[in-house]
């Protein structure tokens, strides 16, 4: 095998493998360097997202939702289940199976597109040279006309709660519990913290989340957050804001967490503790210091709008660069760079990147919030519609939540969409497409939606922007 390539990509997560596939489709000889090893000791493609992040967490969220529906909701549908038992190890095995199927699928895509997978640690040692260090310590160098850095991110650790990977774990460890902890503490009530809380609360844990910020989900529209807080409280989640963890003590039967809140020093006793305080870019030993690759003040690789670094021929995409740490954002950046390398007009629209929190109810948003528009002095109008008035949501026994659309007061162009409710993760795509085409609330309002569907809530919210919703008082 020749050591010379058109493109070498370091990292096989969504950003890296998407870039690789697109490069190969465009006729470039492509290699991907990745060192991930799954818990069974087997090398695996897919990075954090497929192996220990997005995919396994959604598998457990789905399993826990099924259990919760059987034990707590189906009786209202006239369905009585007896002898229901929870088998957490089987749930974990199912999660692992889903992961293996998807990572195996990426491997097949590499094979079909003739992409070389170089297993080991990749390091940029020259503008056109990547050194790969295998598990046995052997080193080999490969050259390429272009190098794409897509090494992803990892969980932030804090000195006040050092991981022991047994009682105190990060989000990856929280996917491997083999029994339900009676008392579960979570440091951080962001996206990951809330999703982990949802999984284990549904299965029977008493969950307390300690959030350092004074408000929950600061980037999210406040009306959506108020609805979410009420729903989470109703589910038994104890979310404590303005809490700064100062220390932890692991004992034989659990963990004692010391923290400060507005009332002073406090303590919390739990059986397990999950640390979910954010993620940081994986740039350790990613490049030689003498290359002078520019990083910003937060440790992200500095890139321009086309993901070019300060080194000619070297690009960076995904979690190692500015912008939201979202798999789909990384995928689009990887594809954009591949197309740019082929002389095509690849681009990423950062204004229309959707966000999703897979709690119950789901939360999804795209574009700007009311607070952001007020701060910018942009005139706007809003339209809302509650799922409680949506026939499909009522039939599904999922009436909690609403759709909120924000449009420019003068042009009616859609500026933001904020949804909390059933299948918000799917519904948000309708707003994303509208915004991508510079569409208006009127465009959504005049688009016929099937009845009965959840998407009718989006339609009614668009009508409400013009104060002409049919199924609500304007």
Strand content: 25-35%
Q: Give me the number of helical elements.
A: 12
Radius of gyration: 24 Å
| CATH architectural name of the largest domain | 3-Layer(bba) Sandwich
Helix percentage range: 25-40%
Number of strands: 22
Which fold does the CATH topology of the largest domain refer to? Answer: FAD/NAD(P)-binding domain
Q: Report the top-level CATH class of the largest domain.
A: Alpha Beta
> What distance lies between the first and last C-alpha atoms, to the nearest angstrom?
69 Å
Mean pLDDT: 97
- The low-pLDDT segments are none
Shape verdict:
globular
Structural class: alpha/beta
Keywords: Cytoplasm, Disulfide bond, FAD, Flavoprotein, NAD, Oxidoreductase, Redox-active center
Subcellular location: Cytoplasm
EC number: 1.8.1.4
Enzyme class: oxidoreductase
């Amino acid at each position: 095998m020749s050591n010379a390539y058109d493109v070498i990509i370091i990292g096989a997560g969504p950003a890296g493998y998407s870039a690789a596939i697109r490069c190969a489709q465009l006729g470039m000889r492509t290699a991907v360097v990745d060192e991930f090893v799954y818990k069974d000791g087997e090398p695996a493609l897919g990075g954090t997202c497929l192996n220990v992040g997005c995919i396994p967490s959604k598998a457990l969220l789905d399993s826990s939702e099924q259990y919760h529906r059987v034990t707590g909701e189906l009786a209202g549908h006239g369905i009585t289940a007896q002898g229901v038992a929870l088998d957490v190890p089987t749930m974990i095995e199912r999660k692992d199976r889903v992961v293996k199927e998807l990572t195996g699928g990426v491997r097949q895509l590499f094979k079909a597109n003739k992409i070389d997978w170089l297993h080991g640690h990749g390091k940029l040692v020259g503008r056109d040279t990547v050194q790969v260090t295998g598990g046995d310590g052997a080193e080999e160098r490969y050259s390429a006309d272009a190098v794409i850095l897509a090494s992803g991110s990892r969980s932030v650790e804090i000195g006040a709660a050092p991981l022991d990977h047994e009682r105190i774990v990060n989000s990856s460890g929280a996917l491997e519990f083999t029994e339900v902890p009676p008392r579960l503490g979570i440091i951080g009530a962001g996206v990951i913290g809330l999703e982990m809380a949802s999984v284990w609360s549904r299965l029977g844990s008493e969950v307390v989340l300690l959030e350092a910020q004074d408000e929950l989900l600061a980037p999210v529209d406040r009306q959506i957050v108020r609805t979410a807080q009420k729903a989470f409280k109703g589910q038994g989640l104890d979310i404590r804001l303005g809490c700064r963890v100062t220390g932890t003590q692991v004992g034989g039967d659990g963990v004692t967490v010391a923290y400060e809140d507005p009332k002073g020093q406090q303590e919390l006793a739990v059986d397990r503790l999950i640390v979910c305080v954010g993620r940081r870019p994986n740039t350790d030993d990613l490049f030689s210091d003498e290359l002078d690759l520019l990083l910003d003040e937060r440790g992200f690789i500095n890139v321009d709008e086309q993901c070019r670094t300060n080194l000619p021929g070297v690009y960076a995409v995904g979690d190692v660069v500015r912008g939201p740490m979202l798999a789909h954002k990384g995928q689009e950046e990887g594809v954009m760079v591949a197309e740019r390398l082929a002389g095509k007009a690849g681009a990423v629209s950062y204004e229309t990147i959707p966000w999703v929190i897979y709690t119950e109810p789901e939360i999804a948003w795209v574009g700007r919030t009311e607070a952001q528009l007020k701060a910018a002095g942009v005139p706007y109008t809003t339209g809302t519609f509650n799922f409680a008035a949506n026939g499909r949501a009522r039939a599904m026994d999922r009436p909690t939540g609403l759709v909120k659309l924000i449009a420019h007061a003068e042009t009616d162009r859609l500026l933001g969409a904020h949804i909390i409710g059933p299948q918000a993760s799917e519904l948000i795509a309708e707003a994303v497409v509208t915004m991508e085409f510079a569409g208006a609330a009127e465009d959504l309002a005049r688009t016929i939606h099937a009845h009965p569907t959840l998407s009718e809530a989006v339609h009614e919210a668009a009508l409400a922007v013009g104060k002409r919703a049919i199924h609500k008082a304007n």
